[in-house]
Amino acid sequence: MPNDALAVEQQFPPPPPLSDDGGPSGDVTHILDGLNDRQLEAVTAPVGNMLVVAGAGSGKTRVLVHRIAWLVEAEGISPGGVLAVTFTNKAAAEMRGRVERLLERPTAGVFAAPARAMWVGTFHGIAHRLLRMHWQEAQLPQNFQILDADDQLRLVRRVMRSQNVDEQRWPVRQATWFINAQKDAGRRAKAVPNPDRDVFMRTHVEIYAAYEALCRQGGLVDFAELLLRSYEIWHEQTALLEHYQRRFRHLLVDEFQDTNGIQYAWLRALAGRSAKVWAVGDDDQSIYGWRGAKIENILSFQRDFPGVRAVRLEQNYRSTGTILRAANALIDNNAERLGKKLWTDAGAGSPILVYSAYNDLDEARFIAERTQRWIDDGGSATDIAVLYRSNAQSRVIEEAFLRLDIPYRIYGGLRFFERAEVRNALAYMRLVGERHSDIAFERVVNTPARGIGGKTLDAIRSIARSREVSMWQAAKEGIAEGLFSGRAQSAVGAFVKLIDTLAAETANCALHEIAEHCIEASGLLAHHAKEPGEQGVARRENLEELVTACRQFGGEMVLPLTPTGEEAEQVSELTEFLDQAALDSGDYQSGGPAAQMMTLHSAKGLEFPLVFMAGMEEGLFPDRRTEQEPGRLEEERRLAYVGITRAMQQLYFTHAESRRLRGVQTVSWPSRFLQEVPPECMEEIRMGGAVARQFRARSGGLADEDADESSLRIGQTVRHAKFGEGVVIQADGQGSRTRVQVNFAAVGAKWLMLAYANLEPVR
Ligand code: ATP
Ligand code: MG
Question: Is 419 exposed, middle or buried (0-12, 13-18, 19+ CB in 10 A)?
Fold first, then answer.
């Protein structure tokens, strides 16, 4: 063996040894139980490259989990030699748990620990892990900080301002998108082709270059950078690559259709010539084309890896016959497909219910009431998912759930770790651990307000720039040299002292104690306590929730330490928590059973007995931008296919005739996707029927039970003696306390007590 190879082995110790009994355990029936023939074929295929392309709910994820167990138990592969990629951290945690349970039997308990040596995570999570372990090879400072999407946007804005770029002409979001797209294509600013092509290109490449420099200086790493940097180390650090190539002999990928260019390239490099790649995916569920995901990767795969075996799974185990039929018919409208059949031997089940709401409030109320009914009938809130195209739709639905007191949880949108108060608290925690984080410094130096204004901040920034130090350092030097005006001098001094004191007091504290202390001593808690109304309460609760999250941290790590200590942690628990918060935004949750609300994009891979697809309207879903971009309509349709196939037992489509979205009132037609589902699969719920009756029952006999025509219902036009004509848009309360909200043409929406309002139905 040549000397440098030896040196590498010493630098990076060999993979963990095989489990104690060293090889196949013989009894693998529990791994194969309950799999159909095709699934068995996939799970037990000889060691080699494999591609399973199959429709939704056909067991791809399940087969992948069983394959890992099979590799370990039947092929005697060390779990430490397995790397599995999934799409969300939640899916990764679930996958790890399922593999562990499959391997954990009384006769083979020894496997439980080694199973943890496996690497399971998202591409981003794994890339992050690599960079933390090999920061030197990646030419990063040890304490590099991850920028989440919001941090990144702020930083790009800062760069643009410093370059005097006109934000009206060149929106910050567009510039950020440009940077990320370049990184996803593996290109640094200096490698962008034709930078002088036109003014668009020139401007953006300049922004990209300046942003790149700023990130390098500050040790900042955005999401796209995680991938790009890890990809680059494969090329620049051959010894490191070879080490991992020797270690990971088996690479498994779920949701393969959504890997983008750089992820695929990263994977290919890691696989090298001899590792085996085992991928599952569904071309009909490719929904990240706009983020660079390439369906062609499915085709390239067959070319790039030798001897790829293909297995097709065609039986769906998730949904009723009706739901599956609807999904198949819808996706049949796409021309670009590999083409698959999907069948089920489950019964037809109940029809998909369609509700045409008068407006978005009415739609939300309907969804909340149906959810309540499901729970009243003995179902659990966790069975239920409300899916929508855009995060902006969630607020109204949330309010309807709050009114009925139905517990719910939101994925995505303004996610827990993205809420301003939580981000503030995290910034304090970050400063305590890492004073030189400018991002954290800027965020909280005057939050809550402590008299440090824009001018003082500019002064700190300019000291930092000219002396090439962090803002923290600049603030300290500024105070020492008396560079600030009188009041600012003491305000900045107090802030510096606050952080130093916090750090000293929490030096030996557990993570949740640090959080608790930061929240209190910083004045954040007191600040929100003064805030009037619901909002203040919610913010305080979120801060308390953060303490809970810290307390729970550690149990659910996606990529835990290996028992061999091979990847001994080099960062503190605090840093690790903050990283996780940045990477994990969507996934954090605690508490009891709750209905889930999320975008269609984040529902990928999940399943729920009861699913609502809300906002099935032209312009919203499919999104209005699809008109201009070729291929987008097909991608929207795949998204609809993803949505429909999440449902196990009952699916609802709802749409509203008019809605207020991002401040604009729109009137819209039902989505074309509703027309693409066979009419026999659907049943319409009439507004004047079941719903009106329900509403009357809750109105405590105020409306005439028998006279359908004269009773009040949502969407009905009424006349009020003072306000004139209006439309009933929602109702709540019971009996004599029933209130209705009426949107009056003359005076806008008003809540009225039904018993006193004297509303006269008009038509
Ligand atoms: P998606 O495309 O949505 O990611 P998938 O192909 O990954 O779906 P899974 O989530 O693995 O499908 O499986 C769908 C459901 O069917 C799961 O509840 C799974 O446990 C169940 N299932 C899969 N195969 C079988 C089987 N052979 N017998 C019984 N249930 C099965
Ligand atoms: Mg799956």
Answer: middle
Question: 486 CA to middle of ligand 2, Å?
Answer: 62
Q: Which ligand does the CA of 33 lie closest to?
A: 1
Predicted confidence (pLDDT) per residue in 238-278, tens digit: 999 999 999 999 999 999 998 988 999 999 999 999 999 99
Best probe residue, ligand 1, of 31, 43, 61 (max atoms within 8 Å of C-beta)? 61
What pLDDT is stored for residue 739 in this prediction? 76
Question: Please, are residues 229 and 237 in contact by the beta-carbon 8 Å criterion?
Answer: no
**Residue pLDDT, tens place only, 277-321:** 999 999 899 888 766 667 778 888 988 998 999 999 999 999 999
pLDDT for residue 358 = 87
Q: Is the CB of 333 under 6 A from ligand 1?
A: no
Ligand 1 atom closest to Cα of residue 54 = 6
Cβ(718)–Cβ(712) under 8 Å? yes
Which atom number of ligand 1 is nearest to the Cα of residue 65?
11
Could you tell me if the CB of 317 is within 6 A of ligand 1? yes
Low-confidence ranges of the chain (pLDDT < 70): 1-26, 105-114, 290-293, 412-416, 533-534, 554-571, 584-591, 662-663, 686-711, 733-737, 763
Q: Helix (H, G, I), strand (E, B), or coil: what is residue 401?
A: helix
Please tell me the distance from the alpha carbon of residue 295 to that of residue 338, in angstroms, as a whole number.
10
**CA–CA separation, 426 vs 296, rounded Å?**
40
What is residue 716's predicted lDDT score, i.e. its pLDDT?
77
Q: Which numbered atom of ligand 1 lies nearest the CA of 63? A: 11
Closest residue by CA, ligand 1 atom 9: 59
Neighbouring residues of 6: CB distance < 8 A, sequence distance ≥ 6: none
Q: Please give the distance, rounded to the nearest whole angstrom, from the Cα atom of residue 651 to the centre of ligand 2.
A: 19
- The pTM (predicted TM-score) of the whole model is 0.76
CA of 56 to the centre of ligand 2 (A): 7
Tell how far the Cα of 583 is from the centroid of ligand 1, in angstroms: 27
Q: Are 542 and 591 in contact (CB under 8 A)?
A: no
| Number of other CB atoms surrounding residue 186 within 10 Å | 16
On whether the CB atoms of residues 62 and 313 are closer than 8 A, the answer is: no
User: Which residue, 453, 452, 472, is CA-closest to 463?
Assistant: 472
- By annotation, the residues acting in catalysis are 60-61, 254-255, 285, 646
Q: What is the pLDDT of residue 414?
A: 54
